[in-house]
Structure formats: C-alpha cells, structure tokens
Amino acid sequence: MKKSIAAMIILIMVFTCGFVASAEDTGGQWGFKKASDNGVKPFRILLIGDSVTNGYRQYVAEDLADIASCDVWLTPAHLNSDGLRDELARIVSAGCYDVIHFNIGLHGWEKGRIPEGQYESLLRKYVETLQKSAGRAVLVWGSTTPIMSEETPRTLDPVNNSVIVERNKIAAKVMAESGIAVNDLYVAVVDKLNLGADKFHWSPEARRLQADCVVRVIKKELTFKLTVLLQKACAPVIKKWTQIEDDKPVEYMTMDGIMVHETNPQIQPQPDIVDPGQPGKAPSDAVVLFDGTEASMKNWTDTNGNQTKWKFADGALESVKDAGLIQSRQTFGSCQLHVEWASPSNVQGSGQGRGNSGVFLMGTYEIQVLDSYQNTTYPDGQAGALYGRKKPLVNASRGPGQWQSYDVIFHRPIFGQDGKVIKQATFTVLHNGVLIHDNVSLTGGTVWRGSHSISEYEPHGDALPIRLQDHGNPVHFRNIWVRPLND
User: Fold this and answer.
1) Type and span of the H or E element at 224
2) First-last CA distance in the chain
3) Geometric angle at alpha carbon 165, from 162 and 170, rounded to 5°
C-alpha cells in the first residue's frame, strides 16, 4: 500500500498542477513564454530574468525535458519599474510552480533608475511579493552576471561592474535572511570573460555553462522536494490517544495498526534469527561465493561459463593477467555484498596502473578496486568510486598488500517496458568500515567510454552474476558472500 501511495505522488502532482492555467504567452522578445509541452510533466519550473536568462533558457528546458516543464518570464524591468510587483504576482500565482529561479538586476544598474540607497528595500518588497505568490514553489536567486568593458575586451567595466558586485552582495544578504538559496552565476563566468559576446551577453559556451549551474540547483531542489513527499507518503500511519486507567491518563500509540511495544507474536512477529558468524565468516543466511578454500573456486567461471584461469593462492582468489573477468555462477539482484581484497604488496605503477581491479554488481555496476594509498588518480576512479559516476566521500584505503573490505547495500535499477529506467540503482558502501557512499542513486552505467565519458543505463534482467575484474594487476580477493534483498 505504501509503495502504491509513493508511486502515485508524481501522478498527483501532474494532475493537480500539470493543467493549471498559466499566464498567457505574450510572444515577442520580452514577456511570458509558456513551455512548449503545455506543462504536462511531473514538475513545473519558472525562470525569471532578462536577456541573459534568455541566452540559457533553452538549454535549461532541454536538460530538464524528461521531468519538468519550463516556463520563462523575460522582462526589461528593474526593481523601481511601475507595476513590476503586480505583474510578478499575476504570473507567479497562475503557475503552480515547483521551483522558481529568478533574477532582477541587470536593467537597474544605470544611475537614476533606482534611487540611491533604495535597492535593498525594493528588493525586499520584490521578494516578499514573490514569496506570497509562489505557493509551494522553492525559490532560487540567480546572481547578476558581470558587465564587461566596451573599450577593453575581456575585462570588467571598471565603473559599472562595481554596481553589480555591490548589489549581488546586498541580494545575497536579503536571500539569506529570507531563506532563499543563491545560485552564483556571477562567479560562474567572471573568470571567463573571453567568452563574452558583448558588454552584457555571452557566447554559446558561456550560456551552456550558466545553464549547467541553473539545472544543477533546480535538480537539487526537486530531489529534496520529492524526497520529502516520498517520506510523507511512506511514513507509517500513526494514531495516538489517551485512556484513563486507575484515575491516571495513559498514552497509547499505534503505527500501521500495531501497538508500540506489542508483545503478541501473532500481531508483531519476532524477526528471523541470523547467526552473524565469527569474525571473517559469513552470516548464516548468506550465499557464500568464496570462503578461502580451493573448493569454493567452483562458484566462479569466466564470462562464457567456462573454468576460470584465475589462481587459488594462500586462501585467496588471485587475478591473472589476460585471464579476463570472472563471474559468480549464481545470479543476484538487490543484495548485501561483503568482499575483501588486497592490492599487491610489491608496488608497481601509478594512478590507474597500480593494483587495479573492480567489483561489478549485476556484472555491470562497478565499485572500483585500486591501490589508492598515497596514489593519486581521478577521484571518480579511485578505490571505492562508483566508477566514472561518483567519487567516494573519503579515501579510507589501507596500504599496499593489506586486506581491505567493501560492505555494500545495493538495490538494482528497475526498467519499464520501453527499456527506460523508472528507478535508479542505489548504493550504500562501507570501505574498511568507513561510510563512503550513503544511499547514492546511480545516474547511469559505469563502463569506460573514453578518457572523459562513461556508459548510460542499458536494460537487463532482474538477476545477474557478480563479476570481479582482471585489469592486469595480481589483486587478491577473499571472504565473499551475498545476502539477497527485496527490491
């Protein structure tokens, strides 16, 4: 039932706000521009700004197209313009938006447009109007971008840009006091003035960079918002009441109909008993893939199902150069995995060439194995990285030749009938007992696609083998066990 409620959240959001009448599309360079999809996506975004916003808005709409409809209001107005706040309230209140990314700064920089000393008070009134009209929307302020010199290319306007800097400082203060996040677009481009197109505007490369900043902050806010909604939907139904017993009030509480501290096993069964095993041993309910005996080598094959060419050495599996990956005979989906490994004690090579291997959940999603003790490489390829996708929170590596451990909680991705991901894989990983990934959603595949690219999701079955990688280095593995988990 809870899963059903959670799954319906997106539909609820679409049908309650996806078809709300929005402000009329005004056409022309300035005015309100409605999303071309008419707002039928799970989320609705509003960008408020001027011609700088107009430069990156299309990139933002394209990047968010799978999840959000993106309206935009472009205005040459400044904070002291007649009717600005009335127009703001009219447009914002009509839209039922989830995130509003806004800026109102560039057109007010000239002397006389905003009376001396009134910028802060006018901005506060603008923000107050926005907050009253925005409903459920999360607000994000985008700082005003630099003004460049017309006389000296690739430099800041020595006089007018100081106005922008000062007003960005005031805006940051106002937003902090108003509980509004700041997206610092000024900082994003101030050291890239070579990408300027004219005094105020930017090249496609710079507009792409600005859009990336906007998309990143919008996705962050949407993720938080959806997480809160899911938590509410999946939370237990809690009921509380008080009864008078022996002339004293006694409080009672149930969660999903079960009394707190219920002792009746018919109502609240005891959890199953699992023997955790002695140190270095698997729990009693685990599937043991390698236990330090040569006999457990039979649990592994090469990727064609033939006998592996890896070696049994001193109670461990040892990778052999050019022998290829090995994989478990059994297949797994969501699971708890424990694996211990050791890079060679004889240090050779550096970076990715030092003690390199990998642990692949479902034969596909790699947790990098590497000697990362005093050995620098790209962060999303060091020991414990979800290769190419996510660097570990910390480097918890032991020295070369020392045994290390990964403890992994993995939930598989789920694909729809069209082959698209409807639920991303998640990883929680402890490296030597230290948390390095905390319920991380994997945004795609982890297969190397060149020096600066990585694979995307490809649909696959619900259960696949676990694989260990031969990368040309004699890495050792031991004590490998798996506990299957429900999706």
Assistant:
1) helix 204-234
2) 15
3) 125
Within 238-393, strands assigned E span 238-245, 248-255, 258-259, 287-290, 300-302, 311-313, 316-318, 326-332, 335-342, 357-361, 365-369
Distance, in Å, from the CA atom of 106 to the CA atom of 200, rounded to the nearest integer, reads: 9
With CA atoms as reference, report the closest residue to 475 among 295, 306, 348, 388: 348
Sheet hosting strand 238-245, strand order edge to edge: 238-245, 248-255, 258-259
Helix, strand, or coil (residue 102): strand
pLDDT reading at 27 higher than 90 = no
Continuous segment of H or E residues that includes residue 210? helix 204-234
Contact 105, 167 (CB under 8 A): yes
**pLDDT confidence of residue 24:** 54
Please list the residues that pair with 149 across neighbouring strands. none
Crossing angle for the helix pair 160-178 and 119-133, nearest 10 degrees? 40
Q: How far apart are CA 200 and CA 347, in angstroms?
A: 54
Residue that wins the pLDDT comparison between 6 and 119: 119
Contact 413, 384 (CB under 8 A): no
Cβ atoms within 10 Å, residue 472:
15
> Residue 233 corresponds to which amino acid?
A
Model pTM above 0.85: no
